Amino acid sequence: MTTMQELGTPTALIDTQRMQHNIERMQERMNALGVRFRPHVKTSKCPSVAWAQIAAGAQGITVSTLKEAEQFFDAGITDILYAVGMVPSKLPPALALRQRGCDLKILADNAAAAREIGSFGKAHGEVFEVWIEIDTDGHRSGIKPEEDVLLEVASVLQDAGMRLGGIMTHAGSSYDYDNPAALLAIAEQERAGAVRAAQRLRDVGLSCPVVSVGSTPTALSAEHFDDVTEVRAGVYVFFDLVMRNVGVCTVDDIALSVLTTVIGHQEEKGWAIVDAGWMAMSRDRGTQKQQHDFGYGQVCSADGKVLEGYILSGANQEHGILSRTGEPDRSIAERFPIGMRLRILPNHACATGAQHPEYQAVMSDGNTETWLRFYGW
Amino acid sequence: MTTMQELGTPTALIDTQRMQHNIERMQERMNALGVRFRPHVKTSKCPSVAWAQIAAGAQGITVSTLKEAEQFFDAGITDILYAVGMVPSKLPPALALRQRGCDLKILADNAAAAREIGSFGKAHGEVFEVWIEIDTDGHRSGIKPEEDVLLEVASVLQDAGMRLGGIMTHAGSSYDYDNPAALLAIAEQERAGAVRAAQRLRDVGLSCPVVSVGSTPTALSAEHFDDVTEVRAGVYVFFDLVMRNVGVCTVDDIALSVLTTVIGHQEEKGWAIVDAGWMAMSRDRGTQKQQHDFGYGQVCSADGKVLEGYILSGANQEHGILSRTGEPDRSIAERFPIGMRLRILPNHACATGAQHPEYQAVMSDGNTETWLRFYGW
After folding, report:
1. Would you place residue A155 in the very low, low, confident or very high pLDDT band (cuts 50, 70, 90)?
2. Regarding predicted confidence, which is higher, B1 or B118?
């Protein structure tokens, strides 16, 4: 146990009470809507966080790299969806995980990948569980629900003796909206497209036990998940300023921040210089085109109170420029003296977390615990 | 030794021949202009790279965090400038480094920090070598050459028994220019401001042995460094697309790239999906407002040939969207089939490197060596 005052800066802080509140809010919603919940742990890359999600009721996890799969499997979690399209070079590490007992599910959205999975699986005597990725909003990967290739991919996998685990989709474009009606519409589009794709498989006698959908905005906006079996979401565990602008949390829900120290001033410009630059905050400027641009982050007091109007307006590698929006604050040096500590709320929790080897988890008594996280591939 | 074909993706590659060329180009220029050279190692955070710079003639290094100072000192480098303003909470680790034999120089740009350094030094019987940061272009930190506080800071340090090591400045605004005349002008402004600040200290009998200036654009653009004793630069060791747009390198000088694999397509949009998203490239969009916007990076063949007009136009965490600028390429799936490997040149080498736990250094025989890098604070 360390006190906040003993921490070096910059440091990534987790407000564990806020995190727990976010976890419970999501899980209770999923329980009420009658679907399983499989959190995406790419946001935290931290077993302590994932175990808190599982303790609240999550069933399995979603990962974005095989390194995440390996690390979380080593931490004791076995039900893992690797939610990025499989390619031949990643089949050997995926096989190794399954042979160690990991219930790893892999993904395909094209016939070439399906054939590679099938022939590699047959050659190694492994029945891979494969989910088919569906594109319900045009933002990235996947097969559209009505495309012929959906049936082709499923048939290739079945003919090669692989297990058809289900379909999954992710309406990543939900991040582009900021009103409840639009979010409700994209959530329904995501749900309906996934259900339709599953129905097309079942109509020709193919198996599709799982219908998996989700993103933080759609998970928190959908009215119902009829015919969906599970929902996925990642960033809700911490939330961030992008999600505040989307409208699915308030700034007071944001559980991740960067603790920083004031190291200088440019008084005539109304600047304080802090030791959180883009290396600590990330280069993510996700709020730039949203309704409220927070620069590189929202400034808060050391104990987490939002200091309205003060943002990180600029960032170099290890220097952040703190200023007031609108009129420069000529009293900046008195307001934020050298050595003063502040917290900065991030634009994008996944990107900011990724800059840090560890989190300092702030407990209800104000002391902190080190929670390791990992990176790389 | 590993062959390129055996590497997993995404992976950060260093083209060691290009890197060596970049190191020699800079060092030869510094030698010809009669100044010492102190590279900024925040770009690589990798002892193998720093030792190549020192082998070519660099004298000492510049760091942006005390963790870098510790890591490079542990790797055998003793002459280290910590080029971020000192604050009280960082004096104990700075003292520990000096007590272990590290010739660490620290920085101040305000009287409050100077007083803290002085009183902490006196209390611990340590004579810190302190350099004063000068602001020659208004982009960030530092004291303007003509400000009264320059003499105040120097006097506070001298009166407390600290060593006045010199002055340093960094014309970071040089990144905003893209023509030789403007770069020459900002280089001269940087040099003249630093020399003027040093002169003001010497005029009142204060010591100022070092006059340290630099940034990659100004180091490569200055006509002369009269009265300057050393130059600093960082990103030149790898270069990147931002520096290509500034005009101080070509794309064929860029020594850092990310090796990636094609994992899918959206043919009607002319997209290939690759496994290098923003986690591998960073969120840096430094070319966005420059003369040539490269999106999240320039696409090259696996052996490094630029594929003109193909860029990473979008990035999610572990997915990159590869497309042609202008008219969509409807033959994208034949051009870039599933499993094909490509290299992506980064916007900003410092930011892209920071996403990776290690580099794969590609040697002249085509084999690769693992060069570890570190992160965090």
Report:
1. very high
2. B118
Domains and CATH numbers, chain B: 34-237 (3.20.20.10), 255-372 (2.40.37.20)
Distance separating alpha carbons of residues B71 and A279, to the nearest angstrom: 17
Q: Residue A181 — very low, low, confident or very high, per pLDDT cuts 50/70/90?
A: very high
Q: How many angstroms separate the CA atoms of A110 and A198, rounded?
A: 16
Whether residues B141 and A284 touch (CB distance < 8 A) is answered with no
- Rounded Cα gap, residues B171 and A157, in angstroms: 58
Are residues A347 and A242 in contact, defined by beta-carbon separation less than 8 angstroms? Answer: yes
* pLDDT tens per residue, range B203-259: 999 999 999 999 999 999 999 999 999 999 999 999 999 999 999 999 999 999 999
HSE toward the beta carbon, residue B293, CA cutoff 13 A? 9
Looking at chain A, how many residues does it have? 377
Number of other residues whose CB lies within 10 A of the CB of residue B205: 7
Give the A:B interface size as CB pairs under 8 Å: 149
DSSP A173-212: GGGG--SHHHHHHHHHHHHHHHHHHHHHHHHTT----EEE
What the block records as the tokens of A24 is 């419970």
What percent of chain B is helix, strand and coil (3-state, nearest 5)? 35, 25, 40
Distance from A32 to chain B by nearest Cα, in Å?
30
In this prediction the ipTM stands at 0.97
- Beta-bridge partner residues of A298: A311, A345
B18 reaches A (C-beta below 8 A)? no
A87 vs B140: CB contact, 8 Å cut-off? no
Q: Please, are residues B252 and B21 in contact by the beta-carbon 8 Å criterion?
A: no
Q: Any bridge partners for residue B265, and if so which?
A: B272
How many residues appear in chain B? 377
Q: Is the dihedral of CA B169, B173, B178, B183 positive or negative?
A: negative
Helix axes B66-74, B47-55, angle to 10 degrees: 70
Chain B: residue nearest A278 by CA? B351
B265: chain A residues, CB-CB within 8 Å: 110
Residue in A263, A281, A350 to test binding to B, most B beta-carbons within 10 Å: A263
> Is 80 exceeded by the pLDDT of residue A239?
yes
- Chain A nearest-CA distance from B197, in A, is 18
Q: CB–CB of B354 and A355 under 8 A? A: yes
* C-alpha of A116 from chain center: 29
pLDDT digits (tens, 9 = 90+) for B135-183: 999 999 999 999 999 999 999 999 999 999 999 999 999 999 999 999 9
Comparing CB atoms, the residue among B89, B138, B354 nearest residue A8 is B89
B168 burial class (0-12, 13-18, 19+ CB within 10 angstroms)? Answer: buried
User: Residue B101 and residue B87: Cα distance in Å, rounded?
Assistant: 21
Pairing status of strand B320-324 against strand B271-274 = antiparallel
Mean pLDDT to the nearest integer, A283-287: 98
Contact of A84 with chain B, judged by CB distance below 8 Å, is answered with yes
Asked if A339's CB is within 8 angstroms of B116's CB, the reply is yes
- A1: exposed, middle or buried (Cβ count in 10 Å: 0-12, 13-18, 19+): exposed
